[in-house]
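User: Hi! I'm working on a homework problem where we have to compare a predicted structure to a textbook description. Could you give me the structure for the chain below?
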Amino acid sequence: MKSNIKWLAASTALATMLVSFHATAFAANEQPVEIRETENVAKVANVIEKASQPWGLASAPDGSIIVVGSGSNQISKWQNGKLTPVTTKTEAGYFDGTIASSTFNQPSSTVVNSKGVIYVSDTDNHVVRKIVNDRVYTAAGNGKPGNKDGKFGDAQFNSPTGLAIDSKDNVYVADSLNHVIRVITPEGVTSTFAGIAGETGGYKDGSAAQALFNEPMGLVFDDKGGLYVADSGNHLIRYIFDGKVKTVAGKPTAVDALTGYMAGGYGNGISAEARFNRPRGLAFADGVLFVADSLNNRIRALQADGKVISIAGQGAPGDKVGEVEQAQFNQPSSLLYLSGKLYIADTLNNSVKVLPVNPKALNPIRTKEELIAGTELLPASKDIQVWLDNKQVKFTALQKPFKSGEKTYLPVRAVFGAWGANIKWNAAAKEVQLTKNNWKLSLKVNAKHTVIVEKGTLYVDAQYLADAASFLFAFDSEYNAIIMSSE
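Assistant: Happy to help. Predicted structure tokens:
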């Protein structure tokens, strides 16, 4: 698709506004009383909170992580809990020189070769840069958008983004608006590795010379030397090996005549039926491909068994750390797997997050969409039906859910008794203690009316309960149903 899009899909000012909005919203939200204890629960945490639209992440030989700040036009290094600039200028420009004088223009991805040379895709300058011994050089390209193979400045790119590096220090480039994959040798010679360049992208598997891509972005090698490609404009994951390109995840759809793109979507399961929405960053470890599914605001995984799962994120954009089911991202753009941790460039939240993962034992999260689809709901009636862990909760005529204003109240004893929890009521404190295995929760009657007593029965607001208990919660208005999952 011919485009002049900005890869971040929002200006720095807009990103700042979004971050400010989320910070205000979460600060204003009522915080539930929670004393939940669960062993070995994976949690998303912030490791860098004041980056400027971070995009690229790469590990360096000294153990540090290189971070590309697309919003600040800076390259930085994160080590020992500190983020320090590698290049210092923040104004957009195109100048080679010392790290104190050189400038970039919306850089995106980065890789580091075996000698510690840092490569950066300088997207809006249409070049690939490298940092060697405190100086910045142009590795390939001449600053003008175009499509040309050749050596050093004879080559031309059009908005290069994703980078990957092989065992021989060849740098592979997702030449996004040329819709091809290029490769730069250590000697500075650029050639086309896969795809047919053009103003518009396309979709075609087959030989690398005849394959078609649409705005490819993230790149990563597997342990066999095959190259995975986040074919972002097609919402697919492609794979290049032995001179051939094939689609390994995602379901191709018809191209929209108006936009020139396939339709993005969301869905897990068998790889050929899975759906993505602008996948960008990729990471590979122990047979698993991790995907930053950017416009779905989720982190996904293509497992060795050919199934796609979600491992973090809720779908809606936001900025929230904690357990993976509750975590929120805002257009994650890059991933880096390092020593059992998955680092996530959470671009429009101006942060880098980390998630401990074991590629050989991933735990898929259930989304609201999957929660509803996987529950055999009864036909709608005037009574609210409630489901917990795929079992319907039964109520008596005197103790059943009811609505009051914007809240829907559930009888605590009926819900948690059906779930098998131990229930201990403290009448003097007007507080109930709920326990089950390693899980426990305290709910206390309060003036905010999230926990109330009505006609001698203790009720809790359903959304408040889901947040406090860290349950996945969904409401299906068509069936007048509340569905929750503790798993």
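For your comparison, note the following. The chain is about 10% helix and 40% strand. Residues 1-39 have pLDDT under 50 and may be disordered. Good luck with the assignment!
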